[in-house]
């Protein structure tokens, strides 16, 4: 008798079961497909989040970012459309960047007047651990057309400086 997958995996033997072998081919059967009446529209499988979700109640959102490197820099890009530069705060240390900001709704719309609500309004934050130490003083940030670009020059650990010892 051929041992089942479970028996081979665990080393145990089971009582006589004729259905537990994954190696045997199971016959395939086709399932009948029920056609919807033409007058009725099919319901979408994914529904948008309800209007009263936690993001619209003032919860803090997360900022999606792209991080890549060149030979000399680490570059971070994030979409911050709708956020003025004075509403952004960027903190840089040698191994981490933290971006904080607030996206405010410019006009108030009543809840029942929305058909769909997917944009995030409110405060957001993102902490990014850097793969290498950077020069904090030489870093720069630029926002253009809703795209924030942060350029962080890498510290060259291989660079050596020779010091002269002064007598006296």
Structural class: mainly beta
> Main sheet?
4 strands, mixed
How far apart, in Å, are the first and last alpha carbons?
92 Å
Our estimate of the beta-strand percent is: 25-35%
Task: Give me the CATH fold name of the domain at 60-105 and 120-153.
Answer: Immunoglobulin-like
Radius of gyration: 29 Å
Poorly predicted residue ranges: 39-58
Helix content: under 10%
Q: Judging from the principal axes of the Cα atoms, what is the shape?
A: flat
Name the CATH class of the domain at 60-105 and 120-153: Mainly Beta
Count of alpha and pi helical runs: 1
How are helices and strands ordered from N to C?
Answer: HEEEEEEEE
Secondary structure tally: strands: 8
- As laid out across the biggest beta sheet, the strand order is 1-6-5-4
Overall mean pLDDT: 75
Q: Give the second-level CATH assignment, the architecture of the domain at 60-105 and 120-153.
A: Sandwich
